[in-house]
């Protein structure tokens, strides 16, 4: 039996309500016809879950662990303990051991870079892979905007605040790419590389796994002028996203119109996905390709960041409420269509489950992580969900506790959150922001929930989490609280790595940032010793 290609489309901070397929009708501000068509032709995953922030979700996806067993922290990549521990095996490494699949990643990595082993190449991806390491970058300069490097930049390059380019190709800095594409909208750069890889894959006999990992819709809100103009007539726009960047694009000199910019970015994402699908069809690879689509977390509702809309879900990124952890997701593509699978399911799938699921599709029988076991690291949590996807079977999480974080657990329809302050916790409208929205960070903080004794929601009957059932169902609260307080043994990356920096660089200079300038010519790259 021919093994399928897998195109995994991983979106950054996309709002649950920013695509049409989650609501059954096009959203009011964004426009996603290509995404919606793919979803409606495939299987929509109404309860696809992830972590509430980027790095833990991406680490869970690549490692097959729940975030509580790999990392829950948003550490910057120049922190040696950021993301996936050194001795955990990733899905691309697992497939590489078998030697059948060609594995590629294009776009955001955000899963570590301390040593070569932490980079995509070190984790089993191809030399053609083109990625960036940070949480967020400038879409036009390609400079990292979220790292510990500001002090280093100002110390070693006086007058420069954001001096480090974040673009890595295979085993080294993407110098040639930057020579040709400096100043280009980074999503165009990544799309072109993905299309090139698909052209190359047409000429091979091996199946492929490719992660297309878009920077959209993470802040800063930036988009080329020609893609912005069709959306500039949106009413009642606002400008709070200007806190993240000085420019919308090099050609734009007006006041920030954040809703228009966000909508244009999501529409650009949709167009790019349409091009990828068309390339698969033009190269006769579509029928053999399974497409998996998800965001890494819910949309960020904070208007000073991106202002995504998670309607009808409550809350957003940074919160264990459904708006933060339930993501817009589906499986599609010709491989699924060949098996006559279509519709939607309300069974639970976690982002960590794709490790075991992809391995099963790839014909890998033994997925045990022996290297991690020898190092005393947590074992795999990933559940093979192929029977759910192709046969309509129940989720492998049925009747079992799924730890969303150290503060939240789901068992079937019930979710318990135990945390002093849970937020953001607002209920968006179908149009967001609107007249009832909180329009400042100070006001937004007032929307947080106090769940210090436990907030309990039935997220099947009440996905918008209006009704806290804790006082009505104390036995359920106690059962789920027992899972959190007694059964959960959380793990956080505590690798001890030997840094390459000399002892005289000074305490005020971060080693990863220092070597970006001194070793890598102004590019982010590995800074600790290892494979």
TrEMBL record:
PANTHER family assigned: ARYLSULFATASE, ARYLSULFATASE B
InterPro entries: Alkaline_phosphatase_core_sf, ARSB, Sulfatase_N
Highest taxon in the source lineage: Eukaryota
Single Gene Ontology MF annotation: metal ion binding
One Pfam match: Sulfatase
Native species: Triparma laevis f. longispina
Keywords: Calcium, Glycoprotein, Metal-binding
The protein's name in its UniProt record: Sulfatase N-terminal domain-containing protein
All copies of domain Sulfatase N-terminal, residue ranges: 4-364
């Amino acid at each position: 039996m021919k093994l399928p290609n897998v195109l995994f489309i991983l979106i950054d901070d996309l709002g649950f309500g920013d695509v049409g397929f989650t609501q059954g009708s096009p959203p009011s501000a964004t426009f996603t016809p290509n995404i919606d068509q793919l979803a409606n032709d495939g299987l929509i995953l109404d309860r696809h879950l992830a972590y509430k922030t980027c790095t833990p979700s991406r680490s869970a996806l690549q490692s097959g662990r729940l975030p509580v067993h790999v990392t829950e922290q948003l550490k910057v990549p120049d922190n040696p303990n950021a993301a996936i521990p050194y001795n955990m095996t990733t899905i691309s490494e697992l497939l590489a051991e078998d030697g059948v699949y060609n594995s590629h990643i294009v776009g955001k990595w955000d899963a570590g870079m301390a040593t070569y082993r932490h980079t995509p190449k070190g984790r089993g991806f191809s030399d053609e892979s083109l990625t960036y390491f940070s949480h967020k970058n400038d879409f036009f300069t390609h400079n990292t905007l979220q790292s510990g490097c500001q002090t280093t930049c100002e110390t070693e390059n006086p007058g420069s605040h954001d001096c480090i380019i974040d673009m890595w190709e295979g085993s080294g800095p993407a110098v040639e790419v930057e020579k040709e594409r400096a100043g280009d909208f980074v999503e165009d750069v990544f799309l072109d590389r993905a299309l090139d890889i698909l052209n190359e894959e047409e000429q091979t006999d091996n199946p492929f796994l490719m992660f297309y990992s878009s920077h959209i819709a993470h802040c800063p809100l930036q988009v080329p002028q020609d893609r912005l103009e069709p959306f500039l007539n949106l009413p009642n726009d606002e400008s709070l996203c200007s806190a993240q960047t000085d420019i919308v694009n090099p050609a734009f000199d007006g006041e920030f119109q954040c809703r228009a910019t966000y909508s244009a970015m999501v529409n650009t994402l949709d167009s790019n996905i349409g091009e990828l699908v068309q390339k698969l069809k033009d190269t006769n690879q579509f029928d053999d390709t399974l497409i998996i689509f998800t965001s890494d977390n819910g949309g960020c509702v904070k208007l000073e960041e991106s202002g995504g809309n998670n309607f009808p879900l409550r809350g957003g990124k940074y919160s264990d409420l459904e708006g933060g952890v339930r993501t817009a997701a589906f499986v599609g593509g010709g491989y699924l269509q060949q098996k006559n699978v279509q519709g939607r399911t309300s069974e639970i799938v976690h982002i960590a489950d794709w490790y075991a699921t992809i391995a099963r599709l790839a014909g890998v029988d033994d997925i045990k992580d022996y290297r991690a076991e020898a190092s005393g690291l947590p074992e795999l949590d990933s559940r093979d969900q192929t029977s759910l996807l192709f046969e309509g079977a129940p989720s492998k999480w049925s009747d079992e506790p799924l730890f969303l974080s150290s503060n939240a657990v789901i068992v079937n329809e019930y979710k318990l959150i135990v945390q002093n302050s849970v937020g953001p916790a607002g209920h968006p409208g179908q149009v967001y922001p609107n007249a009832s929205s909180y329009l400042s960070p100070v006001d937004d903080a007032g929307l947080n929930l106090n769940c210090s004794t436990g907030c309990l929601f039935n997220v099947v009957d009440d996905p918008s989490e209006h009704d806290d059932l804790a006082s009505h169902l104390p036995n359920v609260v106690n059962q789920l609280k027992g899972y959190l307080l007694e059964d959960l043994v959380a793990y956080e990356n505590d690798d001890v790595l030997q840094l390459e920096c000399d002892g005289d660089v000074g305490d005020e200079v971060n080693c990863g940032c220092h070597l970006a300038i001194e070793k890598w010519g102004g590019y982010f790259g590995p800074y600790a010793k290892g494979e």
